[in-house]
């Protein structure tokens, strides 16, 4: 006997694979049992059971809205007996459906006159869920409910378009009233007598206007409901009255065809006979052909010129009294209403182009008002002059003749000097056209402006110096009495004058020249611009002369090209003194030109007889000690790098061949003579008279003590770098025994007396002696050649 126990649970918000129940059954005989699930044929199998454990899991998604009850056949068996029972599983609801609007999207038209709190539309939404998940609120969100084990709020949105409809709160307005029409004896049924015109008073969204006759027509006149044209229904002979006062109604019609607000006007129709009267213009005092008024310029567009009281009339009847009105004049400033008149009408003139009605362009406007009959063979007409006198308004700001002004003024101009005149005009009349000038800006401190004339001057205390500042710019403002203004920019250039002579620096009065290298003097001109500050150098006098050249642009002084040694210098002059007094002039290129002279004391000496590139560098860098230091630093770095490379190569070589070969003999190297370089100060006399010499000394050699040729003892070291030669004295530095010189003035330079110093004589080595002898021989041959 198999006993079976089934406990029903509600699978709320379960996902696939979820354990929803455990089947529990026993066999009285103690045999093991197996569980099973079965469904009706054609039904979806939502659950699956483990036959041993009885665990029931969900294998298909549940949807209460599609199926809220599931029948399952549950079985338990011990292998021989089997028990089957039908179980009903009820699916509870989960909040998995969102609300759906039933009548959306929708469009609602709401008149602007709708009262606050009025109901304008009702929305309706449906949620298929049950309980709180199916409740719908129309505020911020829905009620919400459980879904997959958590609270979920579903929502939906829809578009509701609300159009605010303009309310019709202004009745139609008739244009061109009063209305007068005429019936002539030659008229026939269907003739157009008069046309009324009305427009909706609501300007933004005007309604259609329909016309109707309320009374006074006596069934002999009709009106077109859309055009407003009044027509004759009978022959004039059948008319029982001479004058008809017809009440015409103009009604607004909305988009649904409903009649809205309305207005009523009177149209007076007179029965006349022949065309024997031309159109005539009338004023308040009778017929007139000139109408005059005064108004301000730039009236608003669409404004009626109420100063003109004009009525036009044609005393004929019917078509004989029908005529057109036209306004002829400058541009399209004005227009006339109505343009077609039957018998009589009040003439209305409207502003069409406000900008063209400008007092500054024309102070008086004259138009011709024409009335010309339309359907008569006579074509009678009438004209009237419309004279409009314009009054000025302050509608213009002052305007400069240029957006910017460029001025030039010489430096050192006295205070109060005229710089530039600016001009601005204001076309407005009277006080509105009065212009006042002012200046402002960071560059305006040194200037002032006459407020009435616009003339800009320098301040009385101002002193303009191109060397201090040569460019100024600031703004000038032109303003009328009501504060309307415009701006222009002023650029002032201070012209440089040649008011500074060149001046030599203090350190240019005494120079030491090494043969083969130039010395440089420098003068400074404080003028701001070229050519006033461009300096040219020249040698005015030297004793003895014909020994120096000077570069006119750079101020470099050098010996003539043929002078290459002190021996040649001594051959040129008989003096033993190696100091020359050179009168140098520095002249600028200004107009007029200024010049300054000075005496330059040049002490000529001969450089140590160094050879190679170092000697040339020493010569070029004699006045720049830092360059010499940099040179030696570079040489030391190169030598250190070479030493490291050589040591690395030797180390690698020794490491590679570190084996002892017993079959090799120990060989003693021969002693070699190494040359050592001995650099001495080229500017300091040596006891032996040699500035540069090379000595040969014996250097002990190392012996091989094993077969690997590894050296033992003192290793080779790079030679000691030569000491730098002593540079010539720096500017401003005086050594004991040096001469002192007087500082020259602009007009002249006079050197003070000083102790003269003999030339430095050196003991000649054999090479120098031979060179000097050869030079002397060549000079003597050249003199002999020139002599003969």
From TrEMBL:
Signal peptide location: 1-17
GO molecular function, one term: cadherin binding
Location within or outside the cell: Membrane
Domain of life: Eukaryota
Entry keyword Metal-binding: no
InterPro entries reported in the protein's UniProt record: Cadherin (IPR039808), Cadherin-like_dom (IPR002126), Cadherin-like_sf (IPR015919), Cadherin_CS (IPR020894)
Membrane-traversing stretches: 628-652
Name listed for the protein in its UniProt record: Cadherin-related family member 1
GO CC annotations, alphabetized: catenin complex
Pfam family, one: Cadherin
This protein's UniProt keywords: Calcium, Cell adhesion, Membrane, Receptor, Repeat, Signal, Transmembrane, Transmembrane helix
Sequence ranges assigned to domain Cadherin in this UniProt record: 17-101, 110-174, 175-281, 287-400, 401-504, 512-615
GO-annotated biological processes: anatomical structure morphogenesis; cell migration; homophilic cell adhesion via plasma membrane adhesion molecules
PROSITE patterns documented for this protein: CADHERIN_1 (PS00232), CADHERIN_2 (PS50268)
Gene3D superfamilies: Cadherins (2.60.40.60)
Topology term for the membrane: Single-pass membrane protein
Primary location group: membrane
CDD domains (alphabetical): Cadherin_repeat
Keyword Signal annotated: yes
PANTHER family per record: CADHERIN RELATED FAMILY MEMBER 1, CADHERIN-23
């Amino acid at each position: 006997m198999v006993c079976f126990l089934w406990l029903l649970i509600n699978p709320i918000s379960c996902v696939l694979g979820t354990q929803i129940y455990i089947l529990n059954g026993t066999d009285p005989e103690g045999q093991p049992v197996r569980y099973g699930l079965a469904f009706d044929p054609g039904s979806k199998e939502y659950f699956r059971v483990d036959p041993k454990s009885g665990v029931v899991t969900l294998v298909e998604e549940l949807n209460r809205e599609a199926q809220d009850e599931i029948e399952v056949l549950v079985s338990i068996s011990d292998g021989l007996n089997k028990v089957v029972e039908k179980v009903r599983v009820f699916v509870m609801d989960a909040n998995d459906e969102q609300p759906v609007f039933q009548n959306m999207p929708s469009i609602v038209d709401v008149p602007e006159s709708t009262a606050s709190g009025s109901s304008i539309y009702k929305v309706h939404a449906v949620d298929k869920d049950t309980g709180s998940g199916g409740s719908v609120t129309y505020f911020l969100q829905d009620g919400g409910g459980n879904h997959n084990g958590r609270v979920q709020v579903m929502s939906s949105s829809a578009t509701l378009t609300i159009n605010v409809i303009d309310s019709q709160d202004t009745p139609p307005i008739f244009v061109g009233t009063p209305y007068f029409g005429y019936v002539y004896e030659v008229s026939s049924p269907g003739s157009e007598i008069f046309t009324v015109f009305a427009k909706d008073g609501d300007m933004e969204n005007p309604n259609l206007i329909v016309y109707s006759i309320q009374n006074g027509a006596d069934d002999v006149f009709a009106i077109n409901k859309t055009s407003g044209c009044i027509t004759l229904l009978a022959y004039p002979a059948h008319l029982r009255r001479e004058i008809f006062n017809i009440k015409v109604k103009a009604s607004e019609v909305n988009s649904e065809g409903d009649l809205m607000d309305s207005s009523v006007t009177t149209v007076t129709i007179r029965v006349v006979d022949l065309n024997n009267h031309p159109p005539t213009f009338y004023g308040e005092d009778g017929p007139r052909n000139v109408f005059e008024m005064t108004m301000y310029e730039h009236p608003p567009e669409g404004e009626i010129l109420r100063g003109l009281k004009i009525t036009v009339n044609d005393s004929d009847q019917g078509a004989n009294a029908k005529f057109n009105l036209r306004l002829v004049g400058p541009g399209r400033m004005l227009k006339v209403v109505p343009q077609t008149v039957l018998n009589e009408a009040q003439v209305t003139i409207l502003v069409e182009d406000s900008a063209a009605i400008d007092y500054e362009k024309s102070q008086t406007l004259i138009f011709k008002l024409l009335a010309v009959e339309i359907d008569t063979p006579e074509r009678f007409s009438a004209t009237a002059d419309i004279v409009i006198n314009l009054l000025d308004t302050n509608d213009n700001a002052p305007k400069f003749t240029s957006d910017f002004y460029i001025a030039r003024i010489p430096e050192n101009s006295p205070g109060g000097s005229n710089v530039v005149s600016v001009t601005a005009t204001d076309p407005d009349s009277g006080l509105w056209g009065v212009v006042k000038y002012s200046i402002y800006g960071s560059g305006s401190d040194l200037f002032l402006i006459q407020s009435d004339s616009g003339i800009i001057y320098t301040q009385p205390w101002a002193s303009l110096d191109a060397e201090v500042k040569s460019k100024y710019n600031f703004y000038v403002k032109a303003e009328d009495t009501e504060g309307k203004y415009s701006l222009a920019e002023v650029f002032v250039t201070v012209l440089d004058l040649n008011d500074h002579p060149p001046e030599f620096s203090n350190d240019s009065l005494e120079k030491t020249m090494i043969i083969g290298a130039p010395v440089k003097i420098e003068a400074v001109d404080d003028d701001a611009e070229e050519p006033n500050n461009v300096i040219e150098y020249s040698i005015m006098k030297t004793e003895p002369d014909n020994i120096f050249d000077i570069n006119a642009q750079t101020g470099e002084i050098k010996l003539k090209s043929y002078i290459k040694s002190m021996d040649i210098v001594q051959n040129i002059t008989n003096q033993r003194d190696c100091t020359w007094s050179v009168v140098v002039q520095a002249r600028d290129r200004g107009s007029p030109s200024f010049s300054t002279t000075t005496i330059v004391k040049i002490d000529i000496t001969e450089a140590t007889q160094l050879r190679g590139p170092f000697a040339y560098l020493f010569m070029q860098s004699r006045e720049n000690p830092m360059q010499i230091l940099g040179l030696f630093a570079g040489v030391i770095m190169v030598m250190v790098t070479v030493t490291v490379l050589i040591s690395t190569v030797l180390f690698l070589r020794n490491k590679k061949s570190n084996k002892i070969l017993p079959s090799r003999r120990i060989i003693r190297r021969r002693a070699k003579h190494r040359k050592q370089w001995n650099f001495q100060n080229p500017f300091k006399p040596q006891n032996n008279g040699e500035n540069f010499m090379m000595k040969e000394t014996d250097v002990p050699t190392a012996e091989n003590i094993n077969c690997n040729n590894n050296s033992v003892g003192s290793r080779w070291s790079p030679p000691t770098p030569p000491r730098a030669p002593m540079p010539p004295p720096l500017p401003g530095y005086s050594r004991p025994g040096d001469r002192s010189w007087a500082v020259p003035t602009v007009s002249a330079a006079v050197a003070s007396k000083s102790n003269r110093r003999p030339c430095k004589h050196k003991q000649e080595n054999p090479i120098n002696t031979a060179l000097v002898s050869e030079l002397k021989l060549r000079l003597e041959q050249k003199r002999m050649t020139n002599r003969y």
